[in-house]
Design goal:
- The complex is a heterodimer of chains A (254) and B (461).
- By secondary structure, chain A is α/β, with parallel strands linked by helices.
- Chain A is built from eight helices and nine strands.
- In chain A, a hairpin with a 2-residue loop joins strand 8 and strand 9.
- Chain B has 17 helices and eight strands.
- Chain B is elongated and about 125 Å long.
- The two termini of chain B are 35 Å apart.
- Classes of the chains: A alpha/beta (254), B alpha/beta (461).
- Chains A and B meet through helix 2 of A and helix 1 and helix 11 of B.
């Protein structure tokens, strides 16, 4: 990665105990507003980490810093050099190019030895082979998002960051997306994604990082969050996960 | 290692350039405009500079009897051919009456009507009498449009000044003939009679010859008369040029003290080429840069795939490449109307490339500042068009303070130095090319720096 901090040796991806991404004491402000207030966390190979929280919690800011789009005011980020894939919330695509031309362009820009082979691989992986000649602007939002994800995966990154990847997708497309992402994590890729959909976070996130007003409130598994709710807001412990989560935030003053 | 870094940078720029050209090709309207615009400008400018100004159509009613002539001293002058002189300067539409003349002016068929009344020559002839009249011609105009009215006034005033000059010269010439007769003597025809005029020269000779025959007491008086005749002859000799000068006492002696100017048609071509280059480059660079943000591709690209400097370089390169092709296409089109010095193509290329780079850098600064394609397009027009007009204001056309302000404004944008560079490149009679190219190079550096600064907040949410 290009932002602050030292790079972790990419050889460490095979070891579960060695964190692949580590953020320490991240602080970021926009003017007088503090978007992140000393957030720290780490993720290892094959982990699927969901970053959740209300609007303005700092989710996108955290992912942008991990992706190297923004720089932290304080704190450090350690990640494998050049092996962080990023899928922005709004698809970063050229809508007047075809699906294939978009993938080929980014494969060339990333300096792939055989950009056509990489493009073919991503077309197959994303299931967009039949739409390869379609102008992106004519595709559905869901298919545009699939290309967006495919571009993020072109470099076969050790760490994949997805900012609200399922927004605008119908349930079937959503299911296909998570099946695909889960497969990547199963193959050893560290996946960190943000979402507003708490059910989605519970279902696919192996770990949850809860942010609110720039503070890190919780870092653990969905089951551990349930336990935390049971302790701190017992009246909501047996409700659905979203209601329980809202009660937890309320109890924490957010 | 450095070579590899630069190699990667240029490889990235190459793929981005290819992508932008693909996008351009996918926008038929943009592509057609880029080709059609220079061709249209070339054809318009070509016709304008090759046909020259059209003669205004003027209805002409001549009520003066054909036989009427201007008299000087009882002698008729030959025709001054006022009609011929007027109809060389305007397209005369001969009419048979005032009603027809007024109708043609009202309908807009002619710009104005000029009526020479029947008594015009009589009134001119009365000028040399004890009761002079005022010779008048009548002009009928339709002042529905202020610009048109001013044009008519200017044309008519010029035409009448020329007619007056022609008549004055004719009278002067006739006066000169009488003076010659007075000095040298000869025959003078009046009222069907021929009168012999002795002339001052002969008179003086006769008087001198009479001297010895006169008594000595009368000789001094005869000598005085003889000397007067000689003085009158010598002084009246210089009266002819004086009479000639009275017709046109002031002549224009044009002295060029600065500003090597090329022929007007070359300047017109340079203006057309610079306008085309400016609009194509500024709009393309600004728009394509803003498009990177609108497509949300900017953060993805600048995450290590391309540096912001590389991205700016690619956009400027795109603008320069397309601008060069379009401008050369336009110049090739103008070649049909005006021969251009293709031997100077090296200078053309230098001027177009450096002008394009400076205009591209300005476009990049606008694109990075405005960030949205629609806003960028509007801003590019709002900046380029007035600056282009201001760049064409000559010194002396406005007050000193206003011109100083215009000079500062036009020096801050690359249009004027680009116009100077392209004018110099097109014709050897133009000003030097070095100064404008240096000016453009400085503006390129400044605008690139501004664009880089503006790009820092480009991806901000």
């Amino acid at each position: 990665m290009r932002v602050a901090g030292k790079a972790i040796d990419s050889e460490s991806r095979e070891g579960d105990t060695v964190p692949r991404v580590r953020a320490s004491g991240i602080v970021k402000s926009f003017g007088s507003r503090e978007a992140l207030r000393g957030v720290s966390f780490q993720a290892g190979a094959g982990e699927l980490v969901a970053v959740i929280g209300p609007n303005g919690a700092g989710k996108t800011t955290l992912l942008s810093i991990l992706a190297g789009i923004a720089s932290p005011d304080e704190g450090t980020v350690d990640s494998p050099n050049g092996e962080v894939g990023w899928v922005p919330q709004q698809a970063g695509l050229y809508r007047r190019l075809t699906v294939e031309e978009n993938l080929l362009l980014f494969a060339r820009l990333e300096g792939h030895g055989d950009p056509r082979a990489s493009t073919e691989e991503m077309l197959e992986l994303s299931g967009l082979g039949e739409s390869r000649g379609e102008i992106v602007a004519r595709l559905s939002g869901g298919n545009q998002q699939r290309i967006n994800v495919a571009i993020g995966l072109l470099s076969r990154p050790a760490v994949l960051l997805l900012d609200e990847p399922s927004v605008g997708l119908d349930p079937r497309q959503r299911s296909r997306l998570w099946e695909f992402v889960s497969g990547l994590a199963g193959g050893g890729t560290t996946v960190i994604f943000s979402t507003h959909d708490i059910q989605e976070a519970e279902r696919y996130g192996g770990r949850l990082l809860v942010l609110a007003d720039g503070d890190s409130l919780f870092d653990g598994s969905p089951e551990e969050l349930r336990e935390a709710v049971r302790r701190e807001a017992p009246e909501a412990a047996d409700r659905d996960f979203e209601t329980a989560f809202v009660a937890y935030l309320h109890h924490r003053g957010h | 290692m450095g070579g590899g870094k630069w190699g990667n940078r240029f490889t990235g720029m190459r793929w981005l350039l290819l992508k932008d050209l693909q996008i351009l090709r996918r926008s038929p309207l943009q592509a057609v405009l880029l080709v059609a615009y220079p061709i249209l400008i070339a054809v318009l400018v070509g016709f304008a500079i090759s046909r020259g100004p059209e003669k205004p159509r003027v209805a002409f009613l001549n009520e003066v009897p054909e036989a009427a002539r201007i008299n000087v001293g009882g002698q008729q002058l030959p025709s001054a051919n006022v009609k011929g002189r007027i109809c060389r300067r305007v397209e005369c539409v001969f009419v048979s009456g005032r009603g027809e003349a007024e109708g043609k002016v009202k309908s807009g068929d002619v710009l104005a009507a000029l009526v020479l009344p029947a008594d015009l020559v009589n009134k001119i002839n009365s000028l040399s009498t004890l009761s002079p009249g005022v010779p008048e011609v009548e002009v009928i105009v339709n002042e529905e449009n202020a610009v048109k009215a001013e044009l008519v006034d200017d044309r008519i005033t010029t035409m009448l000044a020329q007619a007056n000059l022609a008549i004055a010269r004719r009278i002067g010439a006739e006066g000169g003939r009488y003076l010659k007769l007075l000095i040298d003597g000869g025959d003078f025809h009046v009222l069907g009679q021929t009168v012999h005029i002795l002339g001052l020269r002969t008179s003086a000779q006769i008087l001198e010859a009479l001297g010895p025959a006169l008594p000595p007491s009368l000789r001094p008086s005869l000598k005085e008369v003889s000397e007067f005749a000689a003085q009158a002859r010598d002084n009246l000799d210089v009266a002819q040029p004086l009479i000639d000068r009275l017709a046109q006492p002031i002549e224009v002696d044009k002295v060029v003290v600065g500003g090597d100017s090329p022929p007007l048609e070359i300047f017109a071509i340079a203006v057309a080429a610079t306008l085309t280059l400016a609009f194509v480059v500024v709009l393309l660079v600004a728009g394509s840069l803003a498009l990177e943000r609108e497509e949300n591709a900017f953060p993805r690209l600048t995450r290590g795939l391309v540096s912001t400097g590389g991205l700016l370089g690619e956009k400027i390169l795109l603008g320069v490449a397309v601008g060069l092709v379009v401008t050369l296409l336009m110049l090739a089109g103008l070649q049909i109307f005006v021969p251009l010095e293709w031997g100077r193509i090296g200078l053309w290329l230098a001027a177009i490339l450096i002008s394009g780079a400076a205009l591209g850098a300005a476009g990049a600064a606008l694109g990075a500042a405005a960030r949205e394609v629609r806003a960028v397009s509007l801003l590019a027009f709002m900046v380029t068009l007035p600056v282009a007009f201001l760049s064409l204001v000559p010194s002396g056309a406005v007050g000193t303070a206003v011109f100083d302000a215009i000079r500062i404004v036009t020096a801050l944008f690359p249009f004027k130095p680009a116009l100077q560079a392209i004018t110099s490149a097109l014709d050897s009679a133009g000003p030097g090319i070095g100064g404008p190219l240096l000016h453009l190079a400085i503006l390129f550096v400044v605008y690139t720096a501004i664009a880089r600064l503006a790009l820092r907040r480009f991806a901000a949410v």
